[in-house]
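INFO batch 0412 | record 1 of 1 | parsing
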Amino acid sequence: MLPRRGTAQAVLLLCHAAHIAPRRDVADWVGAAKAQGGFFAAATDLTTPAKRLLDVGLAKQSKTISLAPPLAGIAHIADTPTLRHVARVLLTFDAPSWLPIAVSPRGVSRQYIPTNVLRDLEWLDPELDDMLVDVYRSVSLSPGTEIRRRIGDAAEAVILAALQAAGRHATHVSPISDTFGYDIESAGPPMLRMEVKGCSLSTRGSFHLSRNEYDKSQIFGEEWVLTQVVFTSEAFVSAVLKPGHIEGIFEVNARDIALAVPPDTTNFIWTDSAMITPRPTAWRPTSYTIADFTLPGLAR
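INFO prediction complete | emitting tokens
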């Protein structure tokens, strides 16, 4: 639920209605908020935000509607500080899909935020960037989030299309099992076992690598390669992906990845996954070119 100003005001009305008396269900809750909210409430859809608050855990329905702590102590005056607090809570509990792409601890890359979304959030300026960074730091952003899955799937599709256009037989093994330690196998010659990562312009050169992927890279040696598909900023706000949304495709070999990984010691053993950043000179362009393709966009 994007915290547009009107949405924040609607949530504030719902909070007030839940505070002043017990509410049996959503209909009772919304009805009370509309009765208390005057013209704005009468003209506003309060049912959708009420249901979303329940869906994301900011409200709970048992015998009556109760608010979660981040909203339970909220002020009832619709002043700017209170509305900003509501916006921060909504962003934290219902994080938008573009957050892990547009925001990092270093700041905000607004080109990765859809234009219409930026327009809806401009009421939070000039504090918007600081708020987004704070939210990013407070939200768990694992490699398995939906947006990262979309980026990975798109990157694999781009590589499959490129290999097929180059006349190479490619097998997509990652849907079969994660135990392979790579995503695509090409019989060659030469034999290739390709772990594929997608990234933005701002995150190129680094990637999450699981321990299994790393171990397989060391087992297969020269056959194993990590391939990174770099998407343009426009790719993250487009409904359809085309070849023009690819900035480039680059690869790094198992040997250079090993140089970037801390060795296991008696006091430290890497067991899960880690962010790896090989030296910049380790990357090289792939030998095949970007093929023609049409894929679902990343802005879904």
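INFO post-check: The chain has a mean pLDDT of 89.
INFO record closed
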